[in-house]
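=== Given protein ===
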Amino acid sequence: MTGHAVVIAGGGPTGLMLAGELALAGVDVAIVERRTNQGLIGSRAGGLHSRTIEVLDQRGIADRFLSEGQVAQAAAFAGARLDISDFPTRHPYSLGLWQNHIERIMAGWVGELKVPIYRGREVTGFAQDDTGVDVGLSDGQSLRAEYLVGCDGGRSLVRKAAGIEFPGWDPTVSSLIAEAEMADAPELGIRHDANGTHGIGRLEYEIRDGEIIYKDEGPVRVMVTEQHVGSTSEPTLRELSEGLIAVYGTDFGIHSPTSISRFTDMTRQAATYRDRRVLLAGDAAHVHAPDGGQGLNTGVQDAVNLGWKLAQVVRRTSPEGLLDTYHAERHPVGARVLRNTMAAVALRRTDERTKALRDTVAELVGMDEPRQRLAAEMTGLGICYDFGDGHPLLGRRMPDLDIVSANGPLRVFTLLHGAQPVLLNFGEPGGFDITPWADRVQLIDARYDGTWELPAIGAVTAPAAVLVRPDGYVAWVGTGTQAGLVDALTTWFGPRKNGGQSAVS
């Protein structure tokens, strides 16, 4: 039986990101993916939010995505634009880039890290014991792993086989989305009516001054709200045609579809993200309406939160209990996303009372403070993990400052390219001794003379030191003393060395 430290079920964006994180930490990880190649047919997610771009920047690969995508102010809530151009980040924007391109770029990065992918196979079941998990594959083969992570989508077999409940709400809206040809010139753009929201756009387009400019010809991407909810069959060209006629009075001669799929506003979240040696991430852990484009982004950020923790447990640097912080931190984030998407769908209803409410909300988010708070939440820039009371930086993403170290000027995110934690000392050089963690945590004496500013919060008091986790979140803030530092180092990066050996057996 072939063995790996970690097996990931699913090679979409979440699974790929997690594999990359584990590989950076030197963990033997493999992906099981049902597709024979990374090709993706049809429309899925359409871009990356600011925090996700930052996460990719933390690993030194953001430019790969930026070079192929289109920068725009695309964050929105229930149709109301949320401009983040004034946010203190190197990436105060969204990136328009379809999921097939995102996956291709991620797969290239994972390939460079030599992660094996078992393609053309699926996980069909597993059995876990005290030391690992036996994973059955659709070709009859089995893999042995210390941990199995389900990144296998909303219908996750891993979640179902683990017996993890998936409570939530059934769909109220159903839409068809397709890529096809049209014989007649279509009506491009978004349309709202009593049946819902619909849209037609060319596959090829540019974004100019925040506006989408479509090519004059070529295949189209279609979205049309269905008049009935509940169909479980594969959608057909006839259904798509009928849906277009119901909305536009014509189907524009639609033909030759390359993909037709259905999505709904079904909203569910796994009751737990961990069952002993089995974990969930991405759509396997949470599904919701695509409003706000948060699904892929939340999944990638799940992976970055889990990756370094799982690596430390596998490498016996940290005790297994560290994995419980994954659920503790990411489940509330997922719940918030579900709440926001449910609210957005509700606000899109076309009755007069909802229109009045939507107009009121639009007025509110037109004001600076509500706009900033909601935009920070929608883009992931406002995430704050609960590490207790303290400095405003505690539990939040570390800003990518331009600092000066003994080796000259550098960006903070550069220090995170290898997915290693870092203690930044802005006080007297040599003021910290973290020898017991020197093999795990970088210590950098740095200077920064600028303003410390956080999205939706503004300027904060400059810290004397910060401990930054591999996922870019601040785990400890020094304000003139070292109080709490040893506890933070132990909590997040394992016990101190004892006689040259890790205290963790």
Remarks:
- The chain has eleven helices and 33 strands.
